[in-house]
Write a structure and sequence with these properties.
CATH architecture of the largest domain: Orthogonal Bundle
Number of domains: 2
Number of helices: 11
Strand content: under 5%
Number of strands: 0
Low-confidence stretches: none
Radius of gyration: 19 Å
Shape: globular
Helix content: over 70%
Length: 200
């Protein structure tokens, strides 16, 4: 029961911080405002998160939950195509979500003045995703019908292809978010193209 209460408080803090960070920016939001939004006492807030940086990392981790879960469930018993489609679906769903785009805009708008923010976000989000994908590609590269000459390049290329031009257009607000059908078609095309380059 006590564990459930702690988890609820932690989640409420993360949810409150997410709304505030994405709406008002990172550095303009104080820990006092986060505590009010949760709502919890400042003592409780600092019990879970000793600094605003740690809280932001938790927010990013929470936003990427589906992606981390999908990548953690990748099985060598499944086909490479199915695994890549699952990873791609989770990735595309996140980067083309309102929250995903808002997070990207937040970092771009503040990282020039606060470069440590960009580094924190990169390590918590993109770098983690790249590392997990590299790990999976290294595993399948041991199979006879797979030849990946540069795993780091391959992982980066996969995610870059999934972002494509449309992600930048969505960030600029000149194009609406893709529909479920459009995302599925894009994922199918990227996975097929990617596999042509690495499978014998």
């Amino acid at each position: 029961m006590a564990s459930d209460t702690r988890n609820t408080k932690r989640q409420n803090i993360i949810k409150g911080a997410t709304v505030l960070f994405l709406k008002h920016g990172f550095h303009t939001v104080s820990m006092d405002k986060v505590a009010q939004a949760a709502p919890v006492s400042k003592a409780t807030l600092y019990k879970y998160f000793s600094s605003k940086d740690y809280l932001l990392a938790a927010v990013i981790d929470e936003l990427c939950t589906d992606l981390w879960q999908t990548m953690g469930e990748v099985s060598m018993d499944s086909s490479i195509e199915d695994n890549l489609k699952k990873i791609a679906t989770a990735f595309v769903d996140f980067i083309f979500s309102e929250q995903g785009l808002a997070l990207y805009r937040l970092v771009v708008s503040e990282c020039d003045e606060f470069p440590e923010l960009g580094e924190l976000v990169y390590k918590t989000g993109p770098k983690t995703a790249l590392s997990q994908l590299e790990h999976y590609l290294a595993e399948i590269n041991q199979q006879d019908h797979v030849t990946i000459t540069d795993i780091t390049f391959a992982a980066d290329s996969f995610f870059s292809l999934l972002k494509g031009e449309q992600h930048f257009q969505c960030l600029l607000g000149i194009k609406s978010l893709p529909s479920a059908v459009e995302k599925e078609r894009h994922i199918h095309q990227v996975v097929a193209f990617f596999l042509q380059g690495w499978l014998k």
